[in-house]
């Protein structure tokens, strides 16, 4: 693994975790992280005929839950109600991610490598900016596990490694008022990111016939219908 990030450590100080996650949510909103996931889910939503559908969405490494909530808002446009479940291994993040009303998110304190969910138990699995925290061989195992868990769709979204993006986020972080931890972590995250060919190789090793694509904001995304339900 390249470097270390605040969110690599489940015992990180809660105040640092929450500040970092707040900055990440802003980065997602401003620089394409949220849009990459929501747009990857759109074709699966469009494939549902009529309204009234109820799906479950599992977000692995949910952070503050900003991405699954954005997905739920988009799903409602298509008459789909998403029941949101987040997975977090950092207690402070798990507590902060829960909400109320339409933004309600059930959060399980668990590790993505040992999910307490049986195969085919959820409709959608999302993992955004999670895989780069893992050694490659572990990430491949997680991808294969996600394919077994989901009935309708799996969406992986991560960072595209780029020196330009590293320089850009470092410079932008000052104007946006990000903390020093976020500034450092953002660069490390991009160093750990993937090229399209690298993510495609991981998908093949996991036995998943999906093809990664680049998205705006230096993102790389793969989305597919699980094999057992294709």
Comma- or semicolon-separated keywords:
alpha/beta; Rossmann fold
What does this structure look like?
The structure is a single chain. By secondary structure, the chain is an alpha/beta fold. The protein has one domain: 3-Layer(aba) Sandwich (Rossmann fold). The chain is built from eight helices and seven strands. The chain has helices at 14-31, 33-46, 66-77, 91-97, 136-149, 163-175, 180-192, 196-205, and strands at residues 53-60, 80-88, 106-109, 122-128, 150-159, 213-215, 219-224. Strands 3-2-1-4-5-7-6 form a seven-stranded mixed sheet, sandwiched between helices. Helix 3 links the parallel strand 1 (53-60) and strand 2. Helix 1 packs across helix 4, helix 2 runs parallel beside helix 3 and helix 6 (163-175) packs antiparallel against helix 7 (180-192). The radius of gyration is 17 Å and the shape is globular. The termini are far apart. The model has no long low-confidence stretch (mean pLDDT 93).
Q: How would you briefly describe this protein structure?
A:
With 230 residues, this protein is of the alpha/beta class. It has 8 helices and 7 strands. β1, α3 and β2 form a beta-alpha-beta unit.
What is the percent of helical residues?
A: 40-55%
- The helix/strand class is alpha/beta
CATH superfamily (homologous) name: Vaccinia Virus protein VP39
Q: Name the average pLDDT.
A: 93
